[in-house]
Amino acid sequence: MKGEVNNIAVLTSGGDAPGMNAAIRAVVRKGIYHGLKVFGIERGYEGLIHGMFREASLGTVADIVHRGGTMLMTARSEEMLTPEGQKKAAEQLDIHGIDGLVVIGGDGSFRGAQTLSAQGVPVIGIPATIDNDIPGTDLTIGFDTALNTVIEAVSKIRDTATSHERTFLVEVMGRKSGSIALQAGLACGAESIIVPEIKVDLDEVSARLLRGHQRGKNHSIIIVAEGAGSAYQIGEELRRKTGFDTRVTILGHIQRGGNPTALDVVTASEMGSLAVELLRAGKSDQMTARVHQEVIGLPLEVAYGPRKPFNRALYDLASQLAI
Ligand code: F6P
Predict the structure, then answer these.
(1) Residues 136 and 154 in one domain
(2) Less Cβ around it within 10 Å: N or C end of the chain?
(3) Does pTM top 0.90 for this prediction?
(4) Can you say whether the dihedral through the CA atoms of 170, 155, 138, 268 is positive or negative?
């Protein structure tokens, strides 16, 4: 029989994402429901390495289900990238008698989780990043909220763009991933979407802007993912090619905040609950994943497999609809 699970811990790591709190709440409450002791570890792997454990109660996670950010705080830990840091992290879990750890974060956080699992610590990962770039899961916690934040911001930008008859480039987050740009661009009816996954042809983009102008459009919105190049340079190039008055808005970290959407809270709650069930079933080195509306467990290594494919069909659709 696998070792009995009595004490579990949870941490959030990497960039925060709306819905992390709902996932923490689900881990804590599901653990307590099963009679486990649940510990929150503050400041991600930094806190783990330095022993920042605090036992959670039902009340600790009251009134957070709808809040953005993470009550446990988070960090991007350099020390966890080193073998010494990884060893210290596993030792701290041992000192505190933890027999199962839940890591809520993105792919960097999952790599840290895997090093702990390799040292014999049962670990489950919950994918949470606004980038939605983790292979294996259709959805990462925070993506839907970030998308809705972008859509709301673009609708405000559209008002001033129309009044001044301007072309706006709106830069959204995603260093390596164009997921936010793609779905927000489609949802906003943007004229063009510029992403790191697809080489941009600025002649084609400006021809599209000019076509729109000829049919009477007095403003345009272009969504640029941050990893696709400088929105300022692209804007300048488009201004030169079209002669249109262009402006750039960088949405930045506003996309990581705010109350999570219902979809993010429900997904986070299901994933937090499943993570506890997986640990109780003696599983380790797994991640929770949303696949075709269901939340399931998958091997953590899926997250390091081939990159999540870019949704080319959706990109083509957005382009066809913004003809
Ligand atoms: O991974 C999430 C993310 O928000 C990316 O979209 C963005 O490129 C990055 O984090 C920004 O990280 P930081 O807040 O550490 O500057």
Answers:
(1) no
(2) N
(3) yes
(4) positive
